[in-house]
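To make this tangible, this section ends with a sequence with its structure tokens:
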Amino acid sequence: MIQVFDEAPQGLQHAPHEARLTAAGYSVAVREVDFTHVDDKESLMLAFLRGLGLTEHFGRNWDALFDVLTDPGQFSGRLALLLCDYVPFRARRASLAAELETVLLDAQAVSAREGRNLWLLVNEPDNHVL
């Protein structure tokens, strides 16, 4: 079975079983962002602040999130964002999720051009479709 970390990141992907353990075997840093209580942009930015371990100086806007995710000094060259409870969030807040996905996919593309990997892993039961 091919592991997600065997290949370059490709958009939003299903998280492997025991993502943290699998990532450790590939020297991939994992940061978990929990969408359980995200209902608006402010709570979304707080989820990233907590999940990425950012300081209160984090700008809490799309540009600031993009900058953090593409800053080579912020994270190693191999980072996986584990997006927890993302599918229900996307169902609740489709337009906010669409804005977020634009930022995440743009950050993934810029990282790839700069020789870094940014995996976007959705941690959901197998019956959810991305």
Notes: The longest strand covers residues 78-84.
